[in-house]
Amino acid sequence: MSNPPENLQNPEDKSWLDQYMIDKVLRDNKLNNEWLYNNLRDELHSLFLRTRNLDVSNKLLKDFVMTMYTSLNAMQIRDSLADRLRGCNNDWRCKLWKKIIALYNSLRQKYDKDDQLSAMDLSDFLVNENIQQVFKQWTGNISPDAIKNASDALKNVILIGFRSLESADSQEKAHDIFFNLHTDLYTVNLDFPTDYNIGTSIDLSPYNFVSQSRKSSPKKI
Fold first, then answer.
1. Rounded to the nearest 10 degrees, what angle do helices 34-50 and 59-68 cross at?
2. Count of structural domains, the chain
3. Is residue 112 in some structural domain?
4. Cα→Cα distances 163→11, 106, 150, 168, 178, Å
5. Which range marks the domain in which residue 135 is found?
6. How confident is the model at residue 202, as a pLDDT?
7. pLDDT tens readout for residues 165-212
8. Are residues 171 and 156 in contact, defined by beta-carbon separation less than 8 angstroms?
9. Would 10 be classed as within a structural domain?
10. Mean per-residue pLDDT for 149-157?
């Protein structure tokens, strides 16, 4: 269950804002409200660990914003925040993909210089330290026990990346294979608790998810 904050502390002046005041700060362009976006971004970690794909309409992230900031009434501000979060999600996808490529190449160089091992064979050399390093950026505010419990699923996500790199004739095609919706099936139902449990508590079943290729528009699945 989500646990949206009753109050948040402004890191600049140390004042506390309730949800009503958060709405006022977000409406006032003269006030520094970047920290409120940063709180949303931190909560997005758990949702990204569950699913790397989003819906066409961006309704998921709009609902995400409204679940965190319950008194927000300005839909234009909600939509703007959701758009920023979508851009952040896209950036994280790129970073995750680069980490998987780097790990794949590193393991190949270390254990398979003759290129005799399959991606499945190569995954046998994956250790928890590798998995933690790949997903480190998105686990800082999540319970270590939850990450430990999810290690097999996260390993499978990496393995799909390895198999995509092995089977495709270019990294661009491998990227599209990796970010197909089936990759999210390993993690979509996992629990990644955070301070407010926004990303881990959202029921994802109502949303129309899409897989997005590297150089094309989203495709419905």
1. 120
2. 1
3. yes
4. 44, 15, 20, 8, 8
5. 15-220
6. 96
7. 999 999 999 999 999 988 999 999 999 999 999 999 999 999 999 887
8. no
9. no
10. 97
Tokens representing 33 are 């409200």
Q: What is the pTM of this model?
A: 0.92
pLDDT of amino acid 215: 53
Q: How many helices (H) and strands (E) does the chain have?
A: 10, 4
Q: What is the CA radius of gyration of the chain?
A: 19
pLDDT, residue 22, reads 97
Question: How confident is the model at residue 211, as a pLDDT?
Answer: 80
- The helix or strand, by DSSP H or E, that contains position 42, with its residue range, turns out to be helix 34-50
Mean pLDDT of the chain: 93
Is 8 part of any domain? no
When pLDDT is averaged across residues 48-77 and rounded to a whole number, the result is 97
Q: How many CA atoms lie within 13 A of 11 on its CB side?
A: 8
How far the first Cα of the chain sits from its last, in Å, is 28
* Cα–Cα distances in angstroms (integers) from residue 1 to residues 50, 55, 95, 196, 201, in the given order: 16, 22, 29, 9, 5
Helix 59-68 vs helix 75-111: angle between axes, to the nearest 10 degrees?
A: 110
The answer to whether residues 186 and 157 touch, using CB atoms and an 8 Å cutoff, is: yes
Residue 170 lies in a domain: yes
